[in-house]
Amino acid sequence: MGNRLNKTPKKLLISKNNFYEMHRFSSPRIICFLEQHSRSLKVNPAGTGGKLGLPFDDSFYPIFYATTSLEMYRSRTTNPLSIFRENNLEKENTACSEFISSFNEIIFIRDLLSISVSLSYNKRPKDGYPEELQDTALGLLYNKAKRHFCLESTRQIASLLENFIKSTPFYKNSSHICSVPSNSANNLPSRLVEIISSTLNLTNISKAIAWSASDQLIRSTPFIDKWDVLEKRNLNIKAEFVPTKEHEEERSVILIDDLYQSGITTNFIAEKLSLLGYDYVYGLSVVKSRSNDENTGTTPDD
Questions:
Q1: How do 123-126 and 129-135 pair as beta strands?
Q2: 8 Å CB contact between 87 and 13
């Protein structure tokens, strides 16, 4: 049996050095049961036993354990982050299968946030043409909401995010929510958070953080220099939303973004939220790009 894993989300420990060190590590950074990990649960022919194996525990395992009460362990393999569980009973296989079905399209992301997930990919290989990509159903909604400011698409996405928050451990216990800041006043994350915070009665702290300089150069900046560029954009942080330390649910915040690519902006903002007093940041993006590093010049994570 391998080493036991931490069953709770990790407290924030984010820095520039930690972020780039994570990116240099070659292990996979996503778990998606619909695609790459569709065969992660192997059931014995008799149906009385089986094994669940995955490449890492970040983001995935706290939600898995809180949902199923099933423990997993660190594997002794060439990947030091990989985890597994041996099932001895049919009901254990059933619990694993039901979890996979419920979170089938969700993408669990290994980064420095307490938990980080996306609802879906923005694109998926076309049937019969694996080299060609086409928009997913959520990718189409995302494009309509972001690029065409479609109110109905925005509301549909907000509803999907609300359902995830209400039904998912740790997210459903958070009382604060925040959008990733943008220089655009009518950006999609802020529009989504306005709707979600009102519907779920969450405290919207988005106004506590704002850029004071333009973001025009960030996309063309080499990946290794992006963190420094973000620092130079001077993120203004207001202390009016400092969390109450007596209540754990007020020391956590849900961070909403529209598209997760390299994760550098999300992790940068999470670091600043930790300086504001939040111990836990639960990232939730609408869609994930096919590559972990779509704007970094590195290769996709298969």
A1: antiparallel
A2: no
243's tokens: 């969390």
Q: Are 237 and 272 in contact (CB under 8 A)?
A: yes
CA distance 215 to 300: 25
CA 59 from chain centre, in angstroms, equals 7
pLDDT tens figures, 30-81? 999 999 899 999 999 876 789 999 999 999 999 999 999 999 999 877 788 8
C-alpha dihedral (272, 142, 67, 18), degrees to nearest 10 = -30
Please tell us whether the domain made up of 117-288 is placed in CATH 3.40.50.2020: yes
Sign (positive/negative) of CA torsion 15, 16, 21, 22? Answer: positive
pTM exceeds cut of 0.70: yes
Distance CA 229, CA 221 (A): 8
Structure-token match 């996309």, residue found: 219
